[in-house]
Amino acid sequence: MNRRRIYRIVFLVVALLAIVYAALIYNNVFDYRSNLGLIRQSNSFLMDLEGLYSNLREAESAHRGYQLTLVPSFLTDFQKLRDDAFVRLNHLDSLTENEVEQQFLIDTLRAQVFRKYNIISEILKTAEEDTDFGRYELNLLKFEKDNMNVIRRLIDEIEKNENQLLLQRLERQQQTDRNVPLLMLIAVSVAILILIVSYLVTSNTLGKLVSAQKVLKESEEKYRSLFKRSIDGILLMNCHFDIVEMNPSLVALLGVDSDRRINLREVFIDEGSFDMFKDELAKVEMVAHFESKLNTTADAVTVSMSCLPVKDAEDQVVGYQGIIRDMTFLKKAEQKLVQSEKLAMTGLLARTIAHEVRNPLNNIQMANEQLMSTKVTDSDYQDTLKFCTEIFESNSIRINNIIKELLLSSRPKKSSTAKISIETILNESLAQIEDRIKLTQIKLNRPLLSKQSAIVNADKEQMKIALTNILINAVEAMEGKEDGMLTVLSGCENDSATIVIGDNGPGISSEIILKLFDPFYSTKNHGTGLGLTSTKSIINSHNGEIEVFSKIGEGTRFIITIPLV
Q1: How far apart are CA 269 and CA 292, in angstroms?
Q2: Cβ contacts of 405 within 8 Å, gap of 6 or more
Q3: Nearest to 559 by CA among 550, 511, 495
């Protein structure tokens, strides 16, 4: 039998005892009130009976006084007493409705009293007509005296019966009073049982409540921990898309104060994108993996947003909850994967070209060398031959260099890494383009990101090639600009060596940035489109990353990060 069933049985027993106790209390109180009423009735009856007897005696005195003095006031008193006697008889009659014997005696008494007053009235009538008492009046007086004796005996008997009734009623009242301790004992017992049951039920309920609260608190702490420690940004919004709460990840992503109340529209770069997000949410009541760019304290960040409405008991939308995932690293990984695939294709193409082009190219070079060694007597023909062979030689060398550069960009040679300061590599790279900087009259700005020296494992020559390619592009972007400024920064940031190369040239559009590291893509008239491809390949081989940020009319920044030793 489980605990709940036991509680139910105990509760039913206590409830039954309470009902029985209530019935006993009701019966005892009813008997008490009834007996009390009867006792009061008996006391009233005895008082009225005594008053009736006094009334009769006073009436007898009044009619005798009138007989002796013939003073009218005695007659008036007699009449009042007579009327009062019958009122008292009626009252006595009403108090004995349920007592048959008493009712019979009261009726007999009423007849005797009526008879008494008739005799007195006859005596008084005779006294008014004749002042001398005759034999008739004497007989009437004697009869009236006998009648009074009968009335006295009736009153004594009625009083005796009523006293017996009063004693019986007093005994019942005492019995009722004797039941009070028993009822109090029952009341105390029931109260104790109720207290015990209440304590058990309350303890059980409180135990369950405490357990439920503990489970709820643990659940709340668990989800609060998930909310706070989630890598993805989590936010709660009201119906107007005001952000009322956001977790630390989202605060860090947006770079805002956690206490500041902002609207989701404010963090969207494109309002049209926010309107599209809002319309989709209103249409299907759920948005999943909605990609957009958000404003942050640094730069625009690509995110994936999922959102659901929060509804109340009446199925009315009262707010929204959402998850914002930073897609920056995923996008970079996708770009790196695409770039790797492109480099792989470029490598395959380069090896094919190297195999298919170098053999004919070697034949051309050999033929050209033979022509150059041939002696010709005709001076005009000799000049023409020399001019053509020089063209053959220069273009063969150019084609061979292009093949080498293509092979290098697609599959760099094995690195010979060593611990080296990134500032050393950068200084040597700048020394290689020092003449270009002076010729174009560009100013060089060379601050440090940090005082700490950035030591990396790197192939010095390959890194110089990568940095030189970027530096040359920056210088060429500012050719003809009077206030050209080449900004080069280096130092340590977040366990990485960081190099920033920036210019204040015309800038690059976002469409071109997406193709910047693609093989054979170039915006220069005579460019091969392999310089930045080679740079990207070298940086990747050093487990580094390269990012490009640019604004039209303001300039371009290349940010390179390589893990520190």
Answers
A1: 8
A2: 528, 530, 534
A3: 550
What do you get for the CA distance between the two ends of the chain, in Å?
71
Round to whole Å and give the CA distance between 425 and 459: 10
pLDDT per position as a tens digit, 87-107: 888 887 777 777 778 788 888
Please classify residue 42 by burial: count the beta carbons closer than 10 Å to its beta carbon, then call 0-12 exposed, 13-18 middle and 19+ buried: buried
What is the C-alpha to C-alpha distance for residues 561 and 497, in angstroms, rounded to an integer?
Answer: 5
Residue 535 CB partners (closer than 8 Å, separation 6+): 465, 466, 467, 469, 470, 517, 546
- CA–CA separation, 395 vs 174, rounded Å? 141
Which residue in 121, 127, 119 sits closest to 146, CA to CA?
119
Query: What average pLDDT score do residues 462-471 get?
Result: 90
Which amino acid makes up residue 60?
A: E
Confirm if 467 and 499 have CB atoms less than 8 A apart.
Answer: yes
- Under 8 Å CB-to-CB from 258, ≥6 apart: which residues? 246, 248, 251
Model pLDDT for residues 231-264, shown as the tens digit of each residue: 888 888 898 888 888 888 888 888 787 777 788 8
Strand (E) or helix (H) holding 318: strand 317-326
Bridge partners of 205, per DSSP, are none
What's this model's pTM, rounded to 2 decimal places? Answer: 0.45
Phi, psi of 301 (to 5 degrees): -120, 130
DSSP element (H, E) containing 393: helix 379-410
Residue among 152, 149, 116, 119 nearest 136 (CA): 119
CA distance 441 to 114: 155
Query: From CA 182, how far away is CA 178, in angstroms rounded?
Result: 8
Tokens of 338: 């695409």
Name the phi and psi angles at 459, rounded to 5: -85, 110
